[in-house]
Automatic annotation (TrEMBL):
It comes from Actinopolymorpha cephalotaxi. One of its GO terms (molecular function) is iron ion binding. Pfam families: PhyH. This is Ectoine hydroxylase-related dioxygenase (Phytanoyl-CoA dioxygenase family). The keyword Zinc does not apply. Keywords: Dioxygenase, Oxidoreductase.
Length: 259
C-alpha cells in the first residue's frame, strides 16, 4: 500500500488559501486502487455488530429514523479494528501535508469514519470540532476528510464558512439528548448557512479543515451510501490558565482529567 514517500504536496498558493479560509480542497489524496481497498475495509467495519467495538467507539451522531434505522453512524478509532488503515499512502500524504500546514512537530491525532446511509442519512449539524475537545487547552489541529465515492452536495459533502477558523469556539449545544452530536446555537447556524461554501469531491479527494473552522454536511438524498473517512493531525495543544467554559459538553467527557 504505502511507499512511505509522500506523493502529494501543497504549493504556496494552497498553503496561503488554507490559512486565509480555514479549509482547502484537493482532488486526489490517494490512488483509485487504494480508495477501492479502503472502501472494502470501511464497509466491513460498518457491517460489524456493535459489540466488535470498545464502549463509545460506535456512536449514533443523530437519532434513528421512524423505522429504527441508524441515520448517522460514526466509528471512532477505526484503525484499532482495521490496523491496515495505519499503512496507507493516503496517511503518508496527509501527514506530509499536515506538516506543511502546522509545522514539523505535527503528529497523528484520532481517525474516525462517518457514514450517511443511502436515502436516509441525516445532516451533520454546523459545528467546530474544538467544541468537542478538552476545555483546558487551545488546540491546533487539522482534519483530512476523504470520501470513498464521488460525493455531491445532495449526498452530504462538506460545507465550510470561510475565515471562521479565526473565531473563538462559538456557543454550541447538544443536538438532542440521545445523540452525540454538537451543533452551533440556532442564530449562529443560520448565519453559517448563508455563508457556506460546499466542496463536492471525487472519490479519494480530500477536504482539509482547521479545528475551529465552522462546518456542516447535508443529508444523503442519493441512492448510494456516503462513506467519509477522516484522519486527524495536531501539534501539542497549549494549556490555558482558565479552562474554557464549554458548558455544552457532557460532564463525563473530561471529568477524570479535570478532577
Ligand atoms: O462526515 C460528516 O458528515 C461530517 C464530518 C465532520 O464534521 C468532521 O470531520 O469534522
Amino acid at each position: 500500500m504505502s511507499t512511505a514517500e509522500a506523493t502529494v504536496s501543497l504549493n504556496a498558493d494552497q498553503i496561503a488559501a488554507f490559512h486565509r479560509d480555514g479549509f482547502l480542497s484537493l482532488p486526489a489524496l490517494t490512488s483509485p486502487d487504494e480508495v477501492a481497498l479502503l472502501r472494502e475495509v470501511y464497509d466491513r467495519l460498518f457491517a460489524s455488530t456493535g459489540d466488535t467495538f470498545r464502549a463509545g467507539d460506535h456512536l449514533g451522531l443523530a437519532t434513528p429514523d421512524e423505522d429504527g434505522r441508524e441515520t448517522l453512524p460514526q466509528i471512532l478509532n477505526p484503525e484499532t479494528y482495521a490496523p491496515e488503515l495505519l499503512d496507507t499512502q493516503a496517511r503518508v500524504n496527509a501527514l506530509a501535508v499536515a506538516g506543511q500546514l502546522l509545522g514539523p512537530d505535527v503528529t497523528r491525532a484520532g481517525d474516525h469514519a462517518i457514514m450517511k446511509p443511502a436515502g436516509h442519512g441525516a445532516p451533520t449539524p454546523w459545528h467546530q470540532d474544538e467544541a468537542y475537545w478538552h476545555p483546558g487547552y487551545d488546540h491546533q489541529a487539522v482534519s483530512f476528510w476523504m470520501p470513498l465515492q464521488d460525493t455531491t452536495v445532495e449526498m452530504g459533502c462538506m460545507q465550510f464558512v470561510p475565515g471562521s477558523h479565526a473565531l473563538d469556539v462559538r456557543p454550541h449545544r447538544l443536538a438532542n439528548p440521545d445523540a452525540h452530536a454538537l451543533e452551533l446555537e440556532p442564530a449562529e447556524a443560520e448565519a453559517a448557512d448563508g455563508r457556506a461554501v460546499a466542496c463536492p469531491l471525487p472519490a479519494g479527494g480530500v477536504t482539509i479543515h482547521h479545528c475551529r473552522t465552522v462546518h456542516y454536511a447535508g443529508p444523503n438524498r442519493s441512492g448510494v451510501p456516503r462513506r467519509a473517512y477522516i484522519m486527524g493531525f495536531q501539534v501539542a495543544p497549549t494549556p490555558v490558565e482558565t479552562p474554557h467554559d464549554y458548558y455544552w459538553q457532557r460532564p463525563e467527557w473530561y471529568a477524570s482529567e479535570q478532577a
